Amino acid sequence: MHGIRCYRYLARSGSVEKAAQALAAEWGTALGAGYDGVSYEQGGIDAAFYAHLLHLGTAQGAAAEDPELLGATGRQMLADWATALGAPDEVLMGRAGLPVRQIADWIARRHGDLAKRVVVLFCREADTYVRDADSQRRERVRDELSDVLERRRPRVVIAHSLGSVVAYETLWHRPVELDVLITLGSPLGLPGAIRDRLSLGPGNEGRIGQRPPGVRRWVNVADIGDVVAIPRDLPAVFPGIDSHYEVSLGVVASHKATRYLAVPEVAAELASLR
């Protein structure tokens, strides 16, 4: 289950099916031996592709990274993010007016321009998903994963970034039997911006933080410098996690899905199922 900035797979391939195939091939290569170029039936991987459902058709290229173009709830999400990252009061002053340029610039000064771009892009796509708990858009995104789960009946779901939010919600709304759920660079525990906007379906609201029903084991991996995986110690607020690994992917690649997939901890978890 992919994260942000994946619409480009569709733009290159021309169809959702081909985009999913390209993503699965890339992730398979990152996972290494036994997955690269191997069909699902032979133990390979499949992908649930949903980027087109969150694509607003606006703000391309550099404009997509402009915090001023975020909507009201996206600006609030950015402020929540800066708070979690430790922004001082003077940066958040006038929070009601959400001085997004000032907040984004603080993130750049503290964590670098790449981190700022990642956070702004995340706020754009994540806010589109979580803005309305009952939106058709949100339900259709969950449907994409549900369709793959029903069709393929996998043993493992690997979910990166925003995809971990989608996967977590989907596995509550429509439980399936899984050996393991692996979340990578997950923002699930971010106060306000994500955790407080999660939708687990009727009767499940009070179960946020628990392991989804049907999932036998939940593994989380967070890079020590990943500004999206906030808070990094996710088990502190999601006690349903069985194993948590902190890794170092390097400054430039601290949120990159393929780098997360290539860490020994992921390989070991998958190898244990063979």
Question: According to CATH, what is the class of the largest domain?
Answer: Alpha Beta
- The Rg value, from CA coordinates, equals 18 Å
Which regions have little confidence, pLDDT < 50, spanning 5+ residues? none
| Proportion of beta-strand residues | 5-15%
Mean pLDDT equals 89
Query: What count of structural domains?
Result: 2
Shape: globular
Largest sheet report: 4 strands, parallel
Write the layout of secondary structure elements.
Elements: H1 7-13, H2 16-31, H3 51-54, H4 72-84, H5 89-92, H6 100-111, H7 113-130, H8 136-152, E1 156-160, H9 162-173, E2 180-184, E3 218-223, E4 243-247, H10 257-261, H11 264-271
Helix pairs in contact: 1-2, 4-6, 4-7, 6-7, 8-9
Descriptive report:
There is one protein chain. The protein is α/β, with parallel strands linked by helices and 274 residues long. The chain has two domains: 186 residues, Rossmann fold; 70 residues. It is 42% helix and 8% strand. The protein contains eleven helices and four strands, in the order H-H-H-H-H-H-H-H-E-H-E-E-E-H-H. It has a four-stranded parallel beta sheet with strand order 1-2-3-4, sandwiched between helices. The longest helix is centred in the middle third of the chain and has 18 residues. The protein starts with 6 loop residues before the first helix and ends with a helix. The model has no long low-confidence stretch (mean pLDDT 89).
